[in-house]
Amino acid sequence: MAAMLMLLSCASRTYHPQTSIVEMDGEKMLVGPLVFADILHYFPDWNTVYEEAEVPTDLVQKIQAINRPLTIRIFLGTWCGDSRDGVPPFMKILERAQNAHLRVELIGVDRQKLDPDGLAIDYHIERVPTFIILENGSEIGRMVEFPEKTFAEDLLDLLAQSNDE
Hints:
The protein is of the alpha+beta class. It has one domain (31-164): Glutaredoxin (3-Layer(aba) Sandwich). It is 42% helix and 22% strand. The protein has helices spanning 2-12, 36-42, 44-52, 57-64, 81-97, 119-122, 151-164; strands spanning 22-24, 27-29, 32-34, 70-76, 102-108, 130-135, 138-144. The strands form 2 sheets. Strands 3-5-4-6-7 form a 5-stranded mixed beta sheet. α2 (36-42) crosses α3, α3 crosses α5 and α4 crosses α5. The longest helix is centred in the middle third of the chain and has 17 residues, at 81-97. The chain is globular, with a radius of gyration of 17 Å. Mean pLDDT is 90; it is low at 1-12.
């Protein structure tokens, strides 16, 4: 009985990815709708950036204070250094903030900036990462490739500007 419980407890700790890794031109990547945990599972360098990312308390509090429902659609390349450097810190801050008003969708693209569902074409994605902020299904802004400050701070600036309009 004890051996069976130990076996079950070990099995419950095994991670089961929801996204399959693909190989394109000899390079492994994730394309299409993604789960962030899968990126961390398949790409250790993304996990390192995530673990080392600083999470300023004041920034978390500002993200927690967002009280309008938003979808943040992030187009990224798991092969892309800019995506690797920008997306994990942003995700870590959002995870700490636990704001139910914010819904994140991750879409992986290949090197041609294409995904199986054609969303990258629909949104005219030319560089990654691209963060598209949607409110009630309409785009209110986007952040492309490099943040002015950090992507989390730029999100707050973008929302402040959209409130002023």
